[in-house]
């Protein structure tokens, strides 16, 4: 299995792997076309690789497309598991839409930027002033019910299995559970209902490399979002991330047939 990687840090120690810089995409077209897999390309490379050069990429195309935008992600969740998606409203950012959403959503509520990660671009709206400040910073209005939680679960899915699951407790400043914003990791037991939901979503949507963030409210799971490129703070040493990726890619790589494809014989009817 020959691999080409565009992310040296996420593929350290991968065997038979050629590492390229993203801007070298068009200089190595034969190499990319001959590779079994192209690993961790930038989002802007995806169309050229998948449609132009017919490469197989990891993470999957669905992981990129759905994970690139919270609006598209939420709509995908609503399509396959609406009962596990928090109440969310999405509108164009216009004066009428601003007033309508403000009149509908009970305080407090959550507002998000469509494209942000690591806890950035998320507001807890508690006043009219909070709402107006948010509206001035976003191209699209994305508002969501506030869930009464002080922690959530990060579920790491690689390939077709759950690699790890751990709690993220609220930071000292409150509201944020993301480790990058001060949240803390708790390795206590995670209910199976949470990991089952993450794996169901990954399989239904074709996502094969993601950290799903799932909240529990009175024992019921709600999916908040997923990150295609997740941090490794909660994975611990010896988590087997590299082995999980390589094993999955190997299982999805068809072995070469030295005798070529089987001939098609005529069938009597």
Question: Which terms summarize this structure?
Answer:
13 strands; alpha+beta; four-stranded parallel beta sheet; single chain; 8 helices; 25% strand; 269 residues; globular; five-stranded antiparallel beta sheet
Question: What's the helix and strand layout?
Answer:
Blueprint (H helix, E strand, L loop, with lengths): L2 E3 L11 E3 L9 H6 L2 E3 L6 H7 L4 E2 L2 H7 L2 H11 L7 E5 L2 H10 L4 E4 L9 E4 L2 H8 L4 E6 L5 E8 L2 E9 L14 E3 L5 H14 L3 E9 L2 E8 L13 H11 L18
Parallel strand pairs: 1-2, 1-3, 3-4
Antiparallel strand pairs: 5-8, 6-7, 6-8, 9-10, 9-12, 10-11, 12-13
Walk me through the structure:
- By secondary structure, the chain is of the alpha+beta class.
- The protein is 28% helix and 25% strand.
- It has helices at residues 29-34, 46-52, 61-67, 70-80, 95-104, 128-135, 192-205, 241-251, and strands at residues 3-5, 17-19, 37-39, 57-58, 88-92, 109-112, 122-125, 140-145, 151-158, 161-169, 184-186, 209-217, 220-227.
- The chain has a five-stranded antiparallel β-sheet.
- It starts with a strand and ends in an 18-residue tail after the last helix.
Q: Which structural category fits the helices and strands? A: alpha+beta
What is the element string, with H for helices and E for strands?
EEHEHEHHEHEEHEEEEHEEH
Give the tally of β-strands: 13
Assembly annotation: single chain
How many alpha or pi helices?
8
The major sheet is characterized as: 5 strands, antiparallel
* Amount of beta strand: 15-25%
Main sheet: strand order: 11-10-9-12-13
Low-confidence stretches: none
Helix coverage percent of residues?
25-40%
Shape, principal axes of CA atoms: globular
**End-to-end gap:** 41 Å
Radius of gyration: 21 Å
Mean pLDDT: 89
């Amino acid at each position: 299995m020959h691999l080409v990687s565009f992310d040296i840090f996420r593929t350290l120690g991968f065997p038979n792997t050629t590492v390229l810089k993203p801007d070298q995409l068009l200089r190595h077209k034969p190499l990319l076309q001959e590779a079994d897999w192209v690993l961790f390309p930038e989002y802007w490379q995806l169309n050229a690789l998948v449609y132009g050069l017919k490469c197989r990429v990891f993470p999957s195309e669905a992981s990129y497309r759905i994970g690139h935008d919270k609006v598209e992600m939420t709509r995908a969740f609503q399509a396959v598991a609406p009962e596990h998606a928090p109440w969310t409203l999405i509108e164009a950012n216009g004066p009428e839409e601003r007033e309508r959403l403000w009149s509908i959503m009970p305080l407090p509520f959550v507002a998000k930027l469509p494209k942000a990660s690591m806890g950035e671009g998320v507001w807890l709206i508690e006043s009219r002033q909070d709402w107006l400040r948010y509206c001035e910073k976003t191209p699209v209005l994305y508002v969501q019910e506030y869930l009464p939680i002080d922690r959530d679960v990060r579920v790491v899915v690689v390939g077709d299995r759950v690699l790890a699951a751990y709690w993220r407790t609220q930071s000292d400043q409150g509201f944020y559970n993301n480790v990058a914003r001060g949240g803390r990791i708790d390795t206590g037991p995670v209910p199976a209902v949470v990991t089952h939901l993450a794996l169901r979503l990954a399989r239904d949507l074709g996502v094969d490399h993601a950290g799903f963030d799932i909240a529990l409210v009175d024992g019921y799971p709600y999916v908040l979002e997923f990150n295609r490129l997740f941090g490794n703070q909660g994975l611990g040493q010896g988590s087997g991330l590299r082995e999980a990726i390589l094993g999955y890619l190997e299982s999805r790589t068809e072995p070469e047939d030295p005798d070529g494809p089987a001939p098609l014989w005529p069938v009597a009817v």
